[in-house]
Amino acid sequence: MKFPKAPMKYKLYDESIIHEESLWTINNAHDPASFKDGDTYYVFSTDAKYGGLPTGGIQVRKSRDLIHWEFVGHAFDQIPAEAHEWTGAQGLWAPEVVKFGDTYYMYYAASQFGKNQSFIGVATSSQIEGPWEDQGEVVKSKQGDLPNAIDPNITFDEDGNPWMVYGSFFGGMFVFRIDPATGKKLAGSEEKLIAKRHESVEAAIEGPYIVYHPEFKKYYLFVSYDSLFKNYNIRVGRADHIEGPYVDFNGNEMTDLSLPPNDVGMKILGGYKFGDSEGWIAPGHNSVLKDGDSYFIVHHARGEKDPHWHYLHVRKIVWSEDGWPLVSPERYAGEEETEIDPALMEGTWEYIQMDKDQNEQLHSRSIELGSDTKAGRGKGFCRYIKGNQFELFLNENGRERKEEIIVLPAWDWENWVPTLVFAGKDEHGEVIIGKKVVPVTEE
Fold first, then answer.
1. C-alpha radius of gyration, the chain, whole number
2. Which residues are known catalytic residues?
C-alpha cells in the first residue's frame, strides 16, 4: 500500500496576494469547471475575488497533477456586450468548457444576484488558453420567466450527443440538446425540467452537473443546495435517461415538491470539521472530471475562519457497489484505490454523518474500531469485503448500525501526515466520512 507524498502547502487567508493574480493558485476559485486537454488539467471559474471587484473575465488555472495549480489569467477583458446589455452584470459566472472537433467552446453566464434577467453565451477558440471569440447567446431568461439562464454544463449521453443542463432555484434545472456544429441549441430541441426545489434562498438549488457512468449505465445529476455562504451542500440523483426522471437513493424524484426540501437528493458533501482542526464551510457548485477510469469532484469551499475566502478543492470520487458516488473527506494529493490491510482499520477515527437536515458545518466525533466482531457501546469493528471495501459496524444507542465504506490511503491536510480515510453510506443512503486519527506508516 502506498500513501501520497506531502502536497503543496497552500497558505489560507493571505492578504498579501489579494492583487497578485500570479500567486492565487487555489485562491478565489468559485464555481470551478474542470477540463483535461492533453496532459494538462484546466479549471475555469467565476470572476470573483476576496477584497476586490470582478474584472469582467473568467478565471483560468492549470495543473499537471490536480494538486499544484498555476493561475493562467482571464478569458475575457470585459463582459461581452450582448450579455452586459441584457443583464447589467458586473462579472461573469459559472463557466463551462468543452471541445467539439478542433474547436474549444467556453460557455459563460451573466446575471445579478437574486434576479433571473440572465444570459448564457458561448465563445470559441482554437486553443484552450484562448484568445476567445464571443459567439453570443445560447439561452437567456427575463424577470418573471420560469427558468434562470445561469450555471451551464455540457454533458454527453451514452451515444456521444451533447446536451446542456442549466438553471437555478427560480425555476429549477432544465436540459436540452446542443448542436455540436454551433455549440448552441439544436433546432427543434425542447427543454425538460429535471430538478426543482421550493423557490427561496433557504431551499435553493443550483450548479447542475451531469455525468454518465458507463459501468452502471446511469446518468448522475450533481446539484448544490441552500445558501452560498453558510450551508451550501452537494446532492446527487441518478437516472436511466439523460432527460430523467432523476431519483435519489430512496427513489425520491428530484422534482418532487411534496416532500420537505432536505428529503430529496442524496447528500454527499457538506461543511465539516475534523477534531480541533479548522474545517470547511459551504462546499459546492461542482464539476466532475473523468480521467480514464478515475473520477474527481472539483468544487469550491469556504474557510471556517472567514467564509468570504473561497478556495479550489479537488477530491477523489469512489463508487459504491450499487453505483453511488462517494467523496473523499480529504483533498486529492495523488492517492489511488488499493488493497487495504484489515488490521489497519483498528484504532481511533474521526467520524461524521452527512446529516441531510443539518447543513451547516458538522463536527466529527471520535469512534474506536477494534478487532472484535461485536460492537460494544461507543465502539465498532470492520468486516473486510474485498480490496478497499469494508462493512463498518457501530453500536448506536444500544443498536448495531451497519455501513458500507470504501477506504483510501490519503493525505491528512489538517495534521499534515499520511493516514487512512473512508467514505460510505448506510442502508438509508445517509453518507458518512471518516479519518484515522493515529497516522499509519507506509509499508
1. 21
2. 31, 206
